[in-house]
Design brief:
- It is built from two helices and four strands, in the order αββββα.
- It has 106 residues and is an alpha+beta fold.
- The strands form two sheets. The protein has a two-stranded antiparallel ribbon. The chain has a two-stranded antiparallel ribbon with strand order 3-4.
- The protein is elongated, with a radius of gyration of 29 Å.
């Protein structure tokens, strides 16, 4: 069960639906605080930099349903600490060091 759920159904022209989606896209592009207009109401929320997206198209007879679902976590991202110790890279032997290691025949 959801902590909060807001639903609104309305009939829009194709142009109105496009303008609503463009407005949402522009708000998400500008930053993390997004306002979603739902009829006469406005829902304000924070959208993090990373979201999961799911797109579903369902055709049932003469009706087409397009669902675009965005999901994200409200938890602060966990910091990742890399505890691995990295050894300095060994350099390739130079010609001088190769010559120094050769045995000289007499």
């Amino acid at each position: 069960m959801s902590d909060v759920e807001v639903k609104r159904k309305e009939s829009l022209s194709r142009q109105e639906a496009a303008e609503w989606m463009v407005g949402l896209a522009e708000a998400m592009t500008r930053g993390g605080n997004v306002e979603v207009h739902l009829g006469t109401s406005t829902l304000k929320m924070h959208v993090p930099d990373q979201v999961r997206c799911e797109v579903e198209v369902e055709v049932d007879g003469d009706e087409v349903e397009l669902e675009i679902e965005l999901k994200w976590s409200t938890e602060a991202p966990k910091s990742t600490v890399d505890d691995t110790v990295t050894e300095p890279a060994k350099s390739a032997p130079t010609k001088a060091s190769k010559r120094a290691g050769r045995k000289v025949r007499s």
